[in-house]
Amino acid sequence: MTAAFRAARAAWLDRLPDTLRSLEVRWSLTLGTPFVAIEDVSCAWVAPARLADGSCAVLKVPLPHMEGEHELEGLRFWNGDATVRVLLADDQTGAMLLERCEPGTPLRTLPEADQDVVIAGLLRRLWRSPPASHPFRPLSVLMEFWSKETLRAADQWPDAGLVREGLRLFQELPRTAPVEVLLATDLHAGNVLRAAREPWLVIDPKPFVGDPAYDATQHLFNCEARLRADPDGLICRVADLLEVDRERVRLWTFARTAAEPRDEWRSDELLAWGRPSAGGPSGSGPLDPLAAYEAAAGHGPAPRYSDLE
Known about the structure:
This protein is of the alpha+beta class.
């Protein structure tokens, strides 16, 4: 968490009581206890709400942050197709009165193999091309933002060459996407809830336009034990369920592992996992991300991290 983000979060928390009182009056709401205690809030204040007619909803007041800037616009675009519906919204604060999922059980209560199938089905429904006048940013903007954050921590990198290779893929992969659609970018089993209108609905999307293969990665990272035990097998399974290119999912997984910003670099186990292994070709041993890069991108041999230092 950067100093700028901490300052913005403190200012947002200062405004929050007045914001909530205003929304209660304007939308005739009775608010319940927040789902997460305010002192633990990172990116939103979320609580059950009851409208004047007795119907139930959820009030979400998001903390403005780069990745979630167009959540409201994304939910409006999807309009309840695989996502919760927006009942009311305040464009100035970004506050949303949302359809409440009942019973609201998160998908993560299911076995991970079942999660794979549900996540894949939801993502395929979300992947649509927005109209020409859409407000959504390209995925390359998120990669550039992450790259700048990672470069600021260059003195902490335990393996500079590995991180540089990830940063290079952050530039390469958006440019070579075979198709671009509206992505959720943060879809995992904690952001999918059991509902009455449909078996499962998506909450908390962070929309960007780009490569569908990228959208596989957050679910993969949330299945950490399986990803470590059999990275190639899990990547292939999820890519096939999504009907996207396996190699591109491998590359995105490696790039995020190697170069996504994090609070602590020197003791980061995920970075150690991402080091190119001595394994054989795809499916015969541990994941070799740089070999996958060569195969998928049509390049000659990619520079090994020892060559980049």
